[in-house]
Design goal:
Layout (H helix, E strand, L loop, with lengths): L3 E2 L7 E2 H7 L2 H16 L8 H25 L1 H4 L9 H4 L6 H21 L2 H22 L6 H5 L1 H14 L5 H24 L1 H7 L4 H5 L1 H19 L9 H23 L3 H29 L1
Antiparallel strand pairs: 1-2
Length: 298
């Protein structure tokens, strides 16, 4: 029998449904960015308990923001083939005040834990990460401007700084450089996905870049923003990260540039998805290389 969760007054849900509502795959990536920010911080190493609180605070706040995104966007999600199977759309999970209450409570608990166990600065950045994704991106910008994902992408940058300030309230040059990398990574990453699902976003009335400017110009913008991202990903080399990081950044960046160049020449759905997956590989290599390099240096 599938694992289920039951809340008082609510029917049981398969665990996979709950995990989907909270977008835990994205949450895990955001948590890794926070741990990377901690790893490259020059400050004193927190205790194991503090590291665990950092990870859980970022994961829970990100998951809460993800749940709010699906709750708020259920009307548009039903118009898109990629998202019409989400639980709030299908009715498998019913929208209602209990969900909003749970989202708020989880966010408050995550921020409070970071405040009490780490410090106010780390808690501030944990809150800002959730706020930017749930409110700035989802509520204020997504339906209004193609710049939605540019500013919404700051959620990843705040996670890096949440990790860095857990070690030192004044983040050093390395975590600040990585925060810039996360800020520049989100647009080409998400625009690639938006290009692959351009018709979906057009049908839902969401002004993602490919809908606003067309596939060819969007693909060229993705290539240009990928070049800017890869250039920025080399900045941490000037802040103390070494050869291991350089290898990871160059390998991931080279792959992403190659896929983005191909997309700019042939803006097809297949090339867009290939570029999207290359962006995930690039970020994974940057984060992993930064953590390993910092560990070896210490």
């Amino acid at each position: 029998m599938p694992t289920t969760l039951r809340a008082k007054g609510l029917r049981s849900f398969p665990l996979r449904t709950i995990l989907g509502v909270f977008k835990l795959r994205i949450g895990v990536v955001i948590t890794l960015t926070a741990l990377t920010g901690l790893a490259v911080s020059p400050g004193p190493s927190p205790s194991l308990a503090q590291i665990l609180v950092l990870a859980l605070s970022v994961l829970v706040s990100s998951a809460s923001a993800g749940a709010f995104n699906q709750y708020y966007e259920s009307d548009r999600d039903r118009l898109m083939s990629r998202t019409r199977g989400r639980p709030f759309v299908t009715g498998e999970v019913r929208r209602g005040p209990l969900w909003l209450l749970a989202i708020v409570v989880l966010t408050v608990l995550a921020v409070a834990a970071a405040w009490l166990v780490l410090n106010p600065w780390s808690a501030f950045f944990v809150f800002f990460g959730a706020f930017f994704y749930a409110i700035v991106y989802t509520v204020w910008l997504k339906r209004r401007t193609w710049l939605n994902i540019v500013f919404g992408g700051l959620a990843g940058s705040w996670a890096v700084l949440a990790g860095a300030t857990a070690a030192d309230p004044q983040p050093g040059a390395a975590p600040l450089a990585l925060a810039l990398v996360l800020f520049l990574w989100t647009p080409p990453h998400f625009w690639s996905l938006a290009l692959a699902y351009r018709d979906d976003y057009a049908a839902a009335g969401v002004p993602m870049l490919p809908v606003v400017v067309g596939e060819q110009r969007a693909a060229q913008t993705i290539f240009g923003s990928t070049l800017a991202l890869v250039a920025a990903s080399l900045l941490p080399l000037a802040t103390g990260l070494g050869v291991i990081y350089g290898i990871g950044a160059c390998a991931g960046g080279g792959l992403f540039i190659a896929k983005a160049w191909r997309l700019s020449r042939e803006p097809t759905r297949g090339n867009a998805l290939s570029c999207f997956h290359a962006s995930l590989a690039q970020l994974s290599l940057v984060l992993l290389a930064a953590m390993v390099d910092s560990r070896v240096a210490s």
